[in-house]
Amino acid sequence: MLHPVGDLPAGVYWRRRALVLGAVLSVVGGGSWLATSATAAPGEGTTATASATGTTSGVPSLEQVVPSLAAVAVPSTTPAPDPAPTAAPEPPAEPVVETAPAGPVYTPGQACTDDMIAVDVVPEAPQATAASKPTFTLVVTNTSPVPCTRSLDAGLREVVLLDAAGTRVWGSNDCFPEVSSDPRTLGVGEAVSVPIQWGGLTSTPGCTTPRTAPAPGSYTLQGRLDTKVGTPAAFAVG
């Protein structure tokens, strides 16, 4: 054993033996350490392990102590919006009262305007011969709701005769105009009648044309008081 035998040099055999011896010693040392660790107290192993890893088993981790910020409900600092104001109920619509259109305003005692009077001609008969010299009645009536005044001067009153074509045939003021002053106060609905006779002949204003008897036929009578012209009335000459 101490004197190796072989073809190789003796140093080679000694080195081999040294390596084998070192391996045997390593195996024996490792087995002893494992046996010692197995028989040691459980707490010591845990403490050593914890010391090797840099943590203590009895102390909770940071994640367990401090909760995640995402899991913590942070109260909002934004104020809640005010509730929308409730609209006050609209008042009920007032009923629409229709008013009559305003008409003319009359004052008692004022002058009778043309719209306050009516002028009509009433013949004695609806038909007469020219030679009979018929009489026509000029009627002026206050149709307003108040008394009023109007001049009924003879120069302002007139009755005219028109043929079927509307041509003037005769006028009561053409040849014998009259002049008078006749202011009247007409009560409400009061009518003033003025008789006017026709001589039976034609005439023109100013009586400048020959006067003749009109031919028989249908004619129209129309009265006038100054600027107020009355309603035509039918008349026939036989």
- The best one-word shape is rod-shaped
What's the CATH superfamily of the domain at 110-237, by name? Answer: Intracellular proteinase inhibitor BsuPI
Q: Tell me the radius of gyration.
A: 72 Å
CATH class of the domain at 110-237: Mainly Beta
- The CA-CA distance between the termini, in Å, is 195 Å
Order of helices and strands: HHHEEEEEEEEEEEE
Quaternary structure type: single chain
The name CATH uses for the topology of the domain at 110-237 is Immunoglobulin-like
Gross CATH architecture of the domain at 110-237: Sandwich
Profile the largest sheet. 6 strands, mixed
Region (Disordered): 38-59, 74-97
Biased composition (Pro residues): 78-94
Protein name: MucR family transcriptional regulator
Biased composition (Low complexity): 38-58
Task: List its salient traits.
25% strand; 238 residues; 3 helices; Immunoglobulin-like; single chain; 19% helix; 3-stranded mixed beta sheet; alpha+beta; 6-stranded mixed beta sheet
Written overview of the protein:
- Residues 38-59, 74-97 are annotated as: Disordered.
- It is a single chain.
- The chain is α+β, with helices and mostly antiparallel strands.
- It has three helices and twelve strands.
- The chain has helices spanning 10-39, 42-53, 62-65, and strands spanning 110-111, 117-123, 127-128, 135-142, 148-151, 157-162, 168-171, 183-186, 191-197, 217-225, 228-229, 233-237.
- Strands 3, 6, 7, 10, 11 and 12 form a six-stranded mixed sheet that branches. Strands 1-5-8 form a three-stranded mixed sheet, with no helix packed on it.
- The chain is rod-shaped and about 200 Å long.
